[in-house]
Amino acid sequence: MPQMDRHKNRKVYIEFVANEGFVNLPYNERFTITFITSGSINLSLNDQQRKVVAPSILCLSMEDKLQVFEKHNVSAQSFSFHLDFFNTAHFSEAQGYLSTSLKIEMGLSLFKKDNIHTNVYTVNEKVYPKLYEWFFVMGTEVYEQSDSLWVCRIKKYLIQILGLLEELSIHNEETPVNLVLEYIHTNYSDKISLEDLTRCAHLNRVSLNKLFQSLYGCTAMGYLLSYRLKVAESLLTHTGMSLNEIAYAVGFEYDTYFIKQFTAKRGMTPTEFRNSSREFGKCQ
Q: How many other C-beta atoms lie within 10 A of the C-beta of residue 195?
């Protein structure tokens, strides 16, 4: 069922299920992220049988076929969202969600059906606390609607969750560089030093930067900056968060430094990017 936004008197087509029973999955006309936090479950997903052990996340579209055979002490929560909530930043009080060319690109691959993407993503112990925090706060916002920007914050956490899962699914081998990437993709919103990254890789800074230069054409800290700006672009496009809020969300201590770095790397200010990338400058 859609949520009624009590601040703007509109329907928002999202839902958070605090105790997922796996009876109605996948939900009609929705993308669904199901976070299995404990236990295990035997299921068939798109005619492939498998055992899913917590902690894991299922990323389901309405086209997926799911059948559950057995559940063992399972605890799980689900967040589902209408396609237009995912694809657009604009909502009309008269016409509802309006389709535009805007797309949150982060996370789209998680819902694909091919030989690479299984729709099931294992969460390791280093990533679990951050995903759990983001998922919990997103669910809390659905119920509390603490102020008129609650939808903005849900989009923020949705972007962060899907972005992290997508990066983890790509860089899943335990190499020195991938260990660093995992740390960056999980903790980019926090303060990170080069020493933190060398500690992850068990390499000195010269060796680590040489590897990053060969793979990505930049240093490890340069990659961190690039990823922070990538997340910031999605937040600028799809939310009405202030520049200060976005700067803090992606790991910049001051919005002035965020603006300086964004402008230097993108050739325009964050505000100019926001105005050029979407038709509506107000969070819906």
A: 9
- In single-letter form, the type of residue at position 259 comes to I
Question: Cα 10 to the chain's mean position, in Å?
Answer: 25
Beta strands in 83-190 (DSSP E): 91-92, 96-97, 120-122
85 vs 145: CA distance, rounded Å:
17
| Cα angle 154, 159, 161; round to 5 | 95
What local confidence, expressed as pLDDT, does residue 278 receive? Answer: 59
Amino acid at 165: L
C-alpha angle with apex 149: 144 to 154, nearest 5 degrees? 70
Q: Residue 115's CB: how many other CB atoms inside 10 A?
A: 5
Token pair for residue 100? Answer: 């535009």
* CATH 2.60.120.280 domain residues, the chain: 1-170
CATH of domain 171-284: 1.10.10.60
Low-confidence ranges of the chain (pLDDT < 50): 88-93, 96-100, 102, 280-284
pLDDT digits (tens, 9 = 90+) for 33-86: 999 999 999 999 988 899 999 999 999 988 889 999 999 999 999 999 887 775
Cα–Cα distance measured from residue 190 to residue 111, given in angstroms and rounded to the nearest whole number? 28
Which positions ≥6 away from 140 have C-beta within 8 Å? none
pTM: 0.85
Residues 70, 272: Cα–Cα separation, whole Å: 52
User: Residue 20: is it exposed, middle or buried by C-beta count within 10 angstroms (0-12/13-18/19+)?
Assistant: buried
Look up residue 147 and give its DSSP letter: S
Using CA atoms, how far apart are residues 163 and 249, in angstroms rounded to an integer? 14
pLDDT of 89-114, one tens digit each? 444 445 544 444 545 566 777 887 66
Homologous superfamily of 1-170 in CATH? Regulatory protein AraC (2.60.120.280)
**26: cis peptide before it, omega within 30°?**
yes
